[in-house]
Design a protein that fits this description.
Elements lengths: L31 H14 L6 H7 L10 H5 L18 E5 L5 H10 L4 E6 L2 H13 L6 E5 L12 E7 L8 H11 E13 L7 H4 L2 H5 L8 H10 L3 E11 L1 H4 L7 H10 L2 H4 L3 E9 L39 E9 L2 E8 L14 E8 L1 E5 L2 E5 L4 E4 L5 E5 L5 E6 L5
Parallel strand pairs: 1-2, 1-4, 2-3, 4-5
Antiparallel strand pairs: 5-7, 6-7, 8-9, 9-15, 10-13, 10-15, 11-12, 11-14
Length: 415
């Protein structure tokens, strides 16, 4: 797709996996298929976007002149990634989570007649809306919209000059994989410019972290800035900057149809009043793919745990694994046959994502209090308790609001 002649036709395509994409085989251990389903259902259930509540808050009115009303009405972002991205004539831009097409159209204007914009969205309906908006704006010859996954972008390696995204990266249950995909499709020297939400670690209660509506609203899937930075750097990006724009509180959330009244009521009930004004922070995320091997940073390989025979070692000396959930630390102890033994720490008030295992799963509580969260209710966990989860049963481990929980588990978060 480096040749612009391949991108002149506006079509909606089904997801394909290009040769350069990573292998997606293996069991779904982070409940990502269910997260995608609830996101699809949430977006299909709303009659329109946030409209003026977003466009008047984040965009320059002059830039919106001539943008079709439907694209404006379906605005659902948390910033203006195009306004400051420095897009140039002739560039190829990927808009991840293009929605109704607002940012794609603004990008198409910036790259001019010789440039191209590829919009990617999870829903066929959104791609169809974006296509219609591009035709109405007279930009159809510069735009192409595809249905696909950000975890498996249907583009070849080194395809685009810039990636933009607006309130969509948090919808991914596998952000490390998503960021690796963004780096893969960018050309050497290509850049990422995104608007999204970050959260302070331990701020959101388990009821919110496990809420489908909060996932669809990009709140439950938000990362802390330090975790977000680390994941981008591990994906190969350099010059990573995460710049706060403004607080995102319950009043801002109420302007988005993705946040139903029951979720807003739960937030007001569960959080102290001072936290309601800052559920999250709207940020601008910028990063760049190295232009050459010379620019690529030296990344230290994960420290391998030494073979331990007889004796004692400190748990904190065992290198932690990479996990997607804020406030969750997992340390791999040892593999016994086909079972991984791990110690998991969940911060006070925190929760793992809902996830599943293809086999029975067992664990024992070492210290702290919390709950085993199942679809039919919570079961309390106290020190000495042994819990059992049946194969493929969705579950999460939540810590009590006032204290953390530590457990030894088998096969938790194996990837």
């Amino acid at each position: 797709m480096n040749d612009h002649t391949d991108t002149t036709t506006t079509t909606t395509a089904t997801t394909t996996t290009p040769a350069g994409a990573a292998d997606r085989s293996g069991p779904d251990l982070t409940f990502q298929d269910e997260v995608r389903d609830l996101v699809r259902d949430a977006y299909r259930s709303i009659p329109t976007g946030a409209g003026a509540a977003v466009t008047e808050r984040y965009y320059d009115a002059h830039d919106l002149t001539g943008i079709p009303d439907d694209a404006l009405a379906w605005a659902l972002g948390v910033g203006d990634p195009v306004g400051q991205a420095g897009l140039q004539d002739g560039e190829v831009v990927l808009d991840v989570g293009c929605g109704g097409g607002l940012d794609s159209l603004l990008a198409a204007r910036r790259v001019g007649p010789s440039g191209r914009v590829i919009g990617l969205d999870l829903l066929d309906e959104m791609c169809e809306r974006a296509e219609a908006a591009a035709r109405s704006a007279g930009l159809a010859d510069r735009c192409r919209f595809e249905t696909g996954l950000m975890e498996a972008i249907p583009l070849d390696d080194d395809t685009v000059d810039a990636v933009i995204s607006n309130g969509a990266l948090n919808l991914s249950a596998r952000k490390s994989r998503t960021f690796a995909e963004l780096a893969r499709v960018l050309r050497p020297g290509g850049r990422l410019w995104a608007s999204d939400l970050t959260v302070d670690e331990g701020t959101l209660p388990p009821e919110v972290l496990a809420s489908g509506a909060a996932w669809a609203g990009c709140l439950a899937g938000a990362l802390a800035p330090r975790v977000l930075r680390r994941k981008l750097e591990r994906a190969g990006f350099i010059e990573v900057e995460i710049t706060p724009v403004e607080p995102f509180g319950v009043d801002q959330a109420s302007a988005y149809p993705l946040f139903p009244d029951e979720l807003l009521a739960a937030l007001r009930r569960l959080l102290p009043s001072e936290d309601l004004q800052r559920l999250a922070t709207s940020v601008v995320i910028t990063a760049r793919r190295p232009a050459s091997e010379h620019e690529r940073p030296v990344v230290e390989a994960p420290r391998a745990d030494p073979l331990v025979h007889t004796g004692v070692r400190a748990l904190d000396d065992i290198a932690p694994d990479e996990v997607e959930a804020p406030g969750v630390t997992i340390r791999h102890l040892k593999r016994v046959d086909d079972v991984d033994l791990k110690v998991m720490d969940v911060e006070a008030g925190g929760s793992t994502p809902y996830h599943v295992h293809p086999h029975a799963h067992e664990g024992v509580i070492v210290q702290g209090h919390g709950a085993l969260r199942l679809q039919d209710g919570d079961q309390p966990l106290t020190p000495g308790d042994v819990f059992w989860v049946n194969p493929t049963e969705p579950h999460a481990i939540a810590a009590a609001p006032d204290r953390s929980i530590q457990l030894v588990c088998m096969d938790c978060f194996v990837d």
